[in-house]
Design a protein that fits this description.
Oligomer: single chain
Radius of gyration: 26 Å
CATH architecture: Beta Barrel
Structural class: mainly beta
Number of helices: 8
Distance between the termini: 6 Å
Length: 711
């Protein structure tokens, strides 16, 4: 039932896996006996079997789908096992069909440009503008930043994407909303398995998982290790991930679960190219990246607990978490050694959450988070062309920082007529940012500051179900995003007291849409419009390439998010479940509103149109073929929308095949089969010049294959 693991060179993580194996028998339930056979054999043995009761502390994907269907806004659930039969190393793979989400690799397969509805455009990487919750606790540091590679999707069961106003009720105050990752558990995913894969650019991955459940105890454990040489020069990446959880049912209505995990992520950075460099050789690393030996190594450990008491229609949840992350990051400006220690606690109450809004349901939550950051930056020992160009030199900056968040949030639903539900939501947030010199900080270091931001954010919605399986909705909400340490640091314009001044970014979003299924068709369509005041962008009227981050005037987002499925087998009279179509199309218009400098220019950084189409063909039992198409329109790279500075759009063709025989699955996955040269993501600058580094080249043709065994 549990996977055998060979340790090899990765002894520490592997030994942790082996330590859990002896405890497997304690987690395996024995058959329950209603009677026992006597010595004469006259009394029969009756074995009672049944489905284990679901976990209280972790929802199933079915629970999440029901909750999403009650939201008057853009929301969807992505089952992570749907990524089987293809390389499944990144959020970009998992989110390929999620409407409203842009996820594209920058440096290697796991370092992503991640944005929802055009959120966080000022940050190309180290994402912001979204709240990430892992098993109910924040992945973000308290100042809002997070690193996508620290997520362990191998231990996840599904993702819930709450876009914009739909996320206000879980305490997400940002423009983009929230992404929620729920872990696999022994109660909901018993059994074990191993998998392995390999392919282009020296890529490989191996992993194992095991889950088991007894009457009052269940556990789940996952281990994976992966590496790739990368297509571009100096783009090798490796990662080792270990995670697990243990749940204890203390009473029929009381359960507690402990989660823990560790990620060791190491990546070389090939740097951003100019258009001339990209056209000459998209595989090359930039000169600065080579000479400075740019990289980004992250070690992150987390431990959390979630306790749920659910008597009757009430549900009380208490969660605690601690996250310790260390980053060793060689940048063009210096070598950053940064430690972030984040502690969070939350308390939530829900009424009628399982039974739905008939006639009333509500939830309230309170969450506190604090991050202590120690940031030490070292200059390079030599100039760019010196033999010491990549050697760590003297300390150039030492800063100690503290961010604190206190949030209250909630949501209520009233079913005041058959099929008609009104909702109200809110979030009240108070957050602070403090920065002061650390040990050894030079006198020329930046000024100390202690700033506070607060907001009360209301939201309202209306949901109508005119027929079974059909939902129409409309919603509105305010959003709020305080500047992160990265925004406040550096060359921020100073007041006479030398304290950097930035206001929080605020917005109001209205959306209408529909989701549901009718016959052979399913759909999820949302039309939205956001008016943003004080968006955090790099702006300079004189046209500087990389000016400080400031508050813009008024910008807006409006767009359409559409996802659809079609049971083509039913429409064409073919055998059931033999031909399916799935597609998504996102249209995003991000513009300034009558700005005196930027007029009505596009707020650059993301394509206006992005689409993905996939056909699933099942010609024989256990065999599945999935041809697919990825489409992107051109992408502006600068806020002045300089002619000739946009990256061209592209069309990529791919295909995968999956064969299942019993408990064994074999698969092959082909990407960019037409070998199209393309730009995966772009840098965002104020005004582009021919020397501007703007381009993250995408991978050429690649083929991956793998196998998995479930037992």
């Amino acid at each position: 039932m549990f996977a055998a693991v060979s340790c090899g060179r990765r002894a520490p993580a592997c030994r942790l896996a082996l330590l859990l194996v002896p405890f497997a028998p304690a987690l395996v339930p024995a058959p329950a006996r209603a009677g026992a056979e006597d010595a004469a054999g006259e009394r029969p043995v009756i074995v009672v079997t049944g489905r284990l009761s679901p976990s209280l502390t972790v929802d199933s994907s079915e629970d999440a789908a029901r909750a999403v269907d009650r939201l008057p806004g853009g929301a969807s659930v992505v089952a992570l096992d749907d990524a089987e039969g293809r390389r499944r190393a990144t959020l970009a793979d998992a989110l390929r069909l999620a409407p409203g989400v842009f996820a594209a690799p920058r440096f290697g397969p796991e370092d992503l440009r991640l944005s929802v509805r055009g959120s966080g455009l000022v940050r190309t990487g180290h994402a912001k503008g979204l709240l990430l919750l892992r098993d109910g606790v924040p992945v973000n540091a308290a100042d809002g930043n997070f690193d996508p590679p620290t997520l362990d999707l191998a231990s996840g069961a599904f993702l819930t994407i709450l876009r914009g106003p739909a996320a206000l009720g879980v305490g997400a105050t940002t423009l983009g909303g929230a992404i929620l990752l729920e872990s696999r558990t022994g109660r909901l995913d018993p059994g074990g398995g191993t998998d392995g894969e390999g392919g282009s650019f020296g890529s490989w991955r191996g992993g194992a998982f095991a889950g088991a459940a007894g009457r009052n105890l269940d556990g789940f454990f996952a281990f994976s290790s992966s590496a790739t040489d990368g297509w571009r020069e100096q783009s090798a990446t490796s990662a080792t991930r270990v995670s697990g959880n243990l749940g204890v049912r203390l009473a029929p209505a009381l359960e507690t679960r402990v989660f823990a995990g560790h990620v060791d992520f190491r990546s070389k950075w090939p740097g951003v190219l100019t258009f001339a460099e990209y056209e000459a050789n998209p595989r090359q690393a930039s000169l600065v990246a080579r000479r400075r030996d740019q990289d980004n190594d992250i070690r992150q450990s987390h431990v959390a607990s979630r306790t749920v008491w659910a008597p009757g229609d009430h549900r009380v949840t208490f969660a605690l978490a601690h996250d310790d992350r260390f980053k060793d990051h060689a940048t063009p400006q210096g070598i950053l050694e940064e430690t972030n220690r984040t502690t969070s606690a939350s308390l939530g109450w829900a009424l009628g959450a399982d039974s739905g809004p008939e006639p009333f349901a509500a939830n309230l939550g309170l969450r506190f988070a604090a991050t202590e950051q120690e940031a030490r930056t070292f200059a390079y020992a030599g100039g760019l062309m010196s033999p010491l160009s990549a050697v760590k030199g003297a300390l150039s900056s030492s800063r100690d920082r503290l961010a604190r968040n206190l949030e209250a949030f909630g949501r209520a639903e009233w079913a005041f007529a058959p099929g008609l539900v009104a909702t109200a939501s809110f979030a009240a947030v108070r957050t602070s940012r403090r920065d002061e010199p650390g040990p050894g900080d030079p006198p020329t270091g930046g000024p100390a500051y202690d700033q506070r931001f607060s907001a009360f954010l209301p939201g309202a919605g209306l949901l109508w179900r005119p027929a079974a399986g059909v939902t129409l909705f409309a919603g509105w909400a305010r959003s709020f995003e305080a500047p992160a340490f990265f925004d406040l640091g550096g060359n921020i314009p100073l007041q006479p007291d030398r304290i950097p001044r930035l206001e929080a970014q605020r917005a109001g979003t209205f959306e209408i849409g529909s989701r549901g299924r009718a016959g052979a068709f399913g759909w999820d369509v949302t039309l939205y419009r956001s008016r943003i005041e004080g968006e955090l962008l790099r702006l300079d009227a004189a046209g500087a390439l990389n000016p400080p981050i400031v508050n813009a005037g008024v910008t807006r987002r409006h767009g359409l998010e559409a996802a659809a499925t079609a049971d083509l087998a039913a429409l064409l009279g073919l055998p059931p479940a033999t031909l399916d179509l799935a597609a998504k199309w996102d249209w995003l218009s991000a513009r300034f509103v009558d700005d005196p400098v930027y007029r009505r220019n596009r707020v650059a950084g993301l394509p206006e149109h992005a689409a993905y189409v996939e056909l699933a063909v099942r010609p024989a039992e256990g065999l599945e073929l999935r041809p697919n198409v990825t489409l992107r329109s051109r992408t502006e790279t600068d806020l002045f929308n300089t002619p000739g500075a946009a990256a061209d759009g592209f069309v990529l063709l791919g295909a995968s095949a999956r064969l299942q025989r019993g408990r064994v699955v074999l698969w092959v996955d082909g990407r960019n089969l037409g070998n199209r040269t393309h730009v995966s993501a772009v840098n965002l600058v104020n005004r582009a010049t021919p020397s501007s580094a703007l381009v993250f080249p995408g991978d050429p043709r690649a083929v991956y294959g793998g196998a998995s065994l479930r037992f």
